[in-house]
């Protein structure tokens, strides 16, 4: 066994030890000839180069999407299987990606670290801030190639394109129903589990879908409140 003199970690081979020591030294000897980014190991450089070449060697057998990394493919496949391994410790919600769990947890503590420079709004995640900025600029960067519609979000474009293609790549593992987008699949799966994560704070009633909760809230607005 070989040991790191900086932190004491042990490694079976000198190659693994040298690779680890670069964490402490900051050495990044592998450079990209196209953009100048550098990396601690050759494998990371090769993976990075796929950004420039567009190579996506890992393909999903269920929907045809392709990815630059095998780990990204494995995460994507959870959309089809319905696996949501990351669970919130404060409520019953679970998530496909760990990053989505972290974003969700900020809602419990009220943390919104991403601030808009044009208004006073703040957000729990950076992607939501970027989408929000489109409301100021009017930019709709995602265009449908089959009609003239454009969208502020790529996910909205992908969902819209299903109207043209008829493709429903997200399938329920319990009844085999197909859906155009992941959120619709997730909402449907709750009909099997009986989970009702959307709770009215005023009366305690719970609902399977957020839209049902909104309808409930509207039906319970008092006339006097509407006149205010």
TrEMBL record:
Matches recorded under Pfam families: zf-C2H2
Localization per record: Nucleus
Coarse class of the protein's main subcellular location: nucleus
Gene3D superfamilies: Classic Zinc Finger
Keyword Mitochondrion found: no
Record-level GO cellular component terms: chromatin; PcG protein complex; transcription regulator complex
Stored InterPro entries: Znf_C2H2_sf, Znf_C2H2_type
Sorted UniProt keywords: DNA-binding, Metal-binding, Nucleus, Repeat, Transcription, Transcription regulation, Zinc, Zinc-finger
Keyword Cytoplasm: no
Annotated C2H2-type domain residues: 2-29, 30-57, 58-85, 86-113, 114-141, 142-169, 170-197, 198-217
MF annotations from Gene Ontology: DNA-binding transcription factor activity, RNA polymerase II-specific; RNA polymerase II cis-regulatory region sequence-specific DNA binding; zinc ion binding
Family: Belongs to the krueppel C2H2-type zinc-finger protein family.
Protein name: C2H2-type domain-containing protein
Source species: Ameiurus melas (Black bullhead)
